[in-house]
Amino acid sequence: VGPGAGGAAVLSGASLSWNHTVGPTGVNRLLTVGVAVGKTPDTGLSLAVTYNGVPLNSAGIVHSNNRTDGFVQLFYLTAPATGTHPVEVTLLGGLASIEGGSVSFTGVHQTTPIRNITTTTGESATPSVTVASAPGNMVVDALVAGCNGAFSTIQPARWIRQVNCATGGGNGAQSTAPGAAPVTMGYTVPTHWWGMIGLVGVAAAPGAPG
After folding, report:
1. Based on CB atoms within 10 Å of each CB, which residue in 59, 75, 88, 192 is the most buried?
2. What is the pTM of this model?
């Protein structure tokens, strides 16, 4: 996990960076990066993310309560370089609050690393997304939500960062859970607009090459 349980954030900026360490053991690696953006309106904004200078792929994006007040985007990269390297987030189109963090895994299928990308939006204190999965896989989510206050997760939290209450994107988080059929990822937050995206990291076949 990088940059740790607190995530990384900037109150108003066009970039964000932190270091992520991919361990030397294990094969078939996958890096995921969740980035939440808060601005009203968020029209015209877009994100680009690199790890060790290598661009990540976007798995999907969802706007808080399907509005234009903030969004969360989940990125991924197969076979990330081992060692400690920078994750660089660039926001194009303006300044905004940005919250982010990263999680990496081993044992992930390298040709089809992700599937079952699922998004939900709403206005409540209990955002959740249910993702079809299977034992042996890993479910990953990312959350964007508005308003400051206590956050908690129903699955193991990887990072949670709260920055401001000015938009529906001032707070972000990411959590993971072992695969099952299905898996519900969820949070308890101050009642406000939110958006969530979840996906399945697909397990590699036993003995698959790294």
Report:
1. 75
2. 0.95
Question: pLDDT per residue over 156-207, tens digit each?
Answer: 999 999 998 888 888 999 999 999 989 999 999 989 999 999 999 999 975 4
For 189, residues 6+ apart whose C-beta sits below 8 A from its C-beta are 125, 126, 127, 143, 145, 147, 149, 150, 151, 171
**Residue 117: CA atoms inside 13 Å, Cβ hemisphere, count?**
12
Write down how long the chain is: 210
DSSP code of 205?
A: P
One DSSP character per residue, 62-129 reads EEGGGSSS-EEEEEEEESPPSEEEEEEEEEESS-EEEEEEEEEESSB-SSS-EEEEEEEEEEES--EE
- Cα 14 to Cα 17, 20, 30, 152, 196: the distances in Å are 11, 20, 26, 28, 22
Q: Distance of alpha carbon 60 from its chain centroid, rounded?
A: 10
- Tokens for 45, please give them: 């904004």
Kind of pairing, strands 192-201 and 114-124?
Answer: antiparallel
What is the number of helices (H) and of strands (E) in the chain? 0, 17
Contact (Cβ atoms closer than 8 angstroms) between residue 123 and residue 194: yes
* CA dihedral for 147, 150, 155, 158, sign (positive or negative): positive
